[in-house]
Amino acid sequence: MTNSKQIALLGLIVIVLISHGIANLFVMELNNSLTTLSITLFLPGLFIAFPSLNLQLYPAILCNTITGILIDATTPIPMGTSAFVFLIVQLVVFQFRSVIKKNNLYHGWVIAQITNFVIFSFVTLYFNGKYLFEDGIFIRTLLDFLFSQSALAIIAPVYFTIIKKTIVVLRMDLYTNELSHK
What is the pLDDT of residues 145-172, one digit of tens each? Predict the structure, then answer.
């Protein structure tokens, strides 16, 4: 890979990581505002879909692992759990890229919804499985899931569009040579 391609790739990784950081801060602020209602939004699908569908394997792994560690630092689950789960889900999503259109916003939205459902279910069952049917935890978890999926349905298309527009404004080409789908 030439130096210009490496610099372009690094630029894309930085844009994605900054976007993920800002989106994570936004979700944390939403969660802070929703604490009075006892609702927690959990939106990992938002962070997995864009790199998995638009970057090559190793840059996508790098972005998702760093984002997973960032989310681990801000959530009350053991360190490394989100990074590991993001990595596994990202590898699965990456395998389906050949049937997904790269510029189709709807496909990215569907992938974000599915990955959010899978990760939410895993985290819920793994960490709260034995307590799920005690003292109304199931209802609260169900409400958290419904609100998370609804918020993701609204936020994801806007988020993906903002990242793509940022890349265009910075005159970077997301779909060239080493950086695109095969």
Answer: 999 999 999 999 999 999 888 888 887 7
Question: By 3-state DSSP, what share of the chain in percent is helix, strand and coil, each rounded to 5?
Answer: 80, 0, 20
pLDDT in tens, 22-46: 999 999 999 999 999 988 898 989 9
> Please, is 113 exposed, middle or buried when counting C-beta atoms within 10 Å of its C-beta (0-12, 13-18, 19+)?
middle
The span from the CA of 28 to the CA of 71, in Å, is 10
Instruction: Give the total residue count for the chain.
Output: 182
Structure tokens at 79: 């360190």
CA 78 to the chain's CA centroid: 18
DSSP assignments along 15-80, one per residue: HHHHHHHHHHHHHHHHHHHHGGGT-----HHHHHHHHHHHS-HHHHHHHHHHHHHHHHHHSSS-TT
CA dist 85 and 17 (Å) reads: 18
The model's pTM is: 0.83
Phi, psi of 39 (to 5 degrees): -115, 135
